[in-house]
Description:
Elements: H1 2-15, E1 22-25, E2 27-29, E3 55-61, E4 88-90, E5 97-100, E6 103-109, E7 114-119, H2 133-146, H3 149-154, E8 158-165, E9 168-173, H4 181-186, H5 193-196, E10 215-221, E11 225-230, E12 250-256, H6 259-267, E13 273-275, H7 279-284, H8 289-293, E14 296-302, E15 309-314, H9 324-331, H10 336-342, E16 349-350, H11 368-374, H12 384-387, H13 402-414, E17 417-420, E18 423-426, E19 433-438, H14 444-456, E20 460-465, H15 468-476, E21 482-487, H16 496-501, H17 520-530, H18 535-551, E22 555-557, E23 559-560, E24 563-569, E25 572-573, E26 589-590, H19 595-598
Helix pairs in contact: 1-17, 9-13, 11-18, 17-18
Amino acid sequence: MRLTAALFSALVFLAAPAHAEVRTAHGLAMHGEPKYPAGFKHFDYVNPDAPKGGTLRLHAIGTFDTLNPHIIKGQAPGLIGLMYETLMSGSADEAFTEYGLIAETITVPDDRSWVEFALRPQARWHDGQPITPDDVVFSFNILKEKGAPRYRLYYSAVDTVSRTGPRSVKFTFKPGDNRELPLILGQLPVLPKHYWQSRKFDETTLEVPLGSGPYRVAGFEPGRFMVMERVKDYWGQDLPTVRGYYNFDTVRIDYFRDTTVALEAFKAGQYDFREENESKKWATQYDFPAIQTGQVKKEKLANENPTGMQGYAFNLRRPLFQDARVRQALAYAFDFEWANQNLFYGQYERTESYFSNSELASKGLPSPQELAILKPLASQIPPEVFSAEYRAPKSDGSGNIRPNLRLALDLLKQAGWEVKNGRLTNAEGKLFEFEILLAQPTWERITGPFVGNLERLGIKATIRTVDSAQYENRERQFDFDMIVEVWGESLSPGNEQREFWTSESADQPGSRNTIGIRNPAIDTLVDLVIAAPDRETLVTRTRALDRVLLWNHYVIPHWHIGYDRVAYWDKFGRPSVIPPRGFQLFAWWIDTTKPLAAAAAPSPQPR
């Protein structure tokens, strides 16, 4: 551990500037300079003259039982965030850059040991009161004290926060090199102190909260629908980060319990836009009359987003999965090639990195720069990190995976398991059995063949599908053996990696460390990623982290695609440019020159 600490200290020292100069700007990039200069009018991927009006009708699966998205209790509707604004706003065509939103300017020293935000004088809550530094200080404190666990993790390196003037607030950071912190604070959701100080923040509520964003809740019925209306006098509508966005007067989200029923509702014209995440539906159920006549458009929209990691995630809090050989063995029972051919219609690529589809993904053997990071950690990480490129188990796609199952049995035997009377058993006579918890019936057709292959190993795995509320509660409390988990990644990984992988988050209910990883080497690598002084170093350190995560076999990797599958009724206009982060639905608009839009009924009113 002393060697690990010395490595980290040395790398951070080399990156530290000799003198910290202070500058004030309209935006801040994680590395380098912002793409858009001071005084820019709008982002390149929007139409600044997009017309306002009409209704966007969407769908969601499941339900909601609270309108407070900032706490661990309850399920909030996905678009409730449109009610709120943050200090800064990110762009979709840069790795990680933010520009002023509630904050007019951002002031930082070169060493980024503190940050000061100057608030816009025109920033207002929906009740007309101004947004003040006191609101910012209150928001930080209440989120850290009573908000979801991610806020405590994200803000743990903040030492003090204080009002420094009638329109300014300053955050000072604890010692250490964390260049992302000013940007993390830029993402702070600002909440109204005068509203929340007379209410319980950490309780679920169906009272519509006060916000400052481009939309407000106009009506809802839990489990059925939510309607949001555009705030006509929204204070930020002419800002360069906002211009061209939020063109729909009304956004309506109808809730469905079942994905099949939801698709049929789309075909019937009950909602307008659908992003498809099921390959079978995309391949077999989008040949209905409205597609044939051109009333519905079906498209693949390219993006350059890292695909992150989706996979069957082990819960290491369970003794059954604490041996890496066991986890590796179970991966041999998942036959991706057969599933891709027979279930996914050949649409996917196998995921073999936590940062697939980006330069951050590890490949080949470690570079000299990676080895300089990894060698001091050699006693704490799998030896394969140094000798082999990670490759997920493969088959010929025929469904005969006997060679893979033989490899799995060898690993299980090394870990103390043997087949007795057809059941995998350890020396204490304990049978190898566990539950796979699912949130949607859709996953059953994929998980069933996996369970069948496990049965051939003598393992009894049962599938349990529960409703979304129960699933979310069990996941938050880590009450599962195995689940399907997704960790989304950006082009600029940083503080969120602490919540994903570190010992600090392993025991915090509601954290994204659902696996329960407690690994000192990974803690060190995450710290190094966060402290990366430039883009080249960030890429190197992220690849090193990727290798260690992969070779610990924490998940059985699934698959990914490098585009978005969307279908929509042909009533929209959209910008000609799709940024690297993918299409921006709220930069679309209703095109009244199109027959479907011209013939549309008036916007539906809340029921």
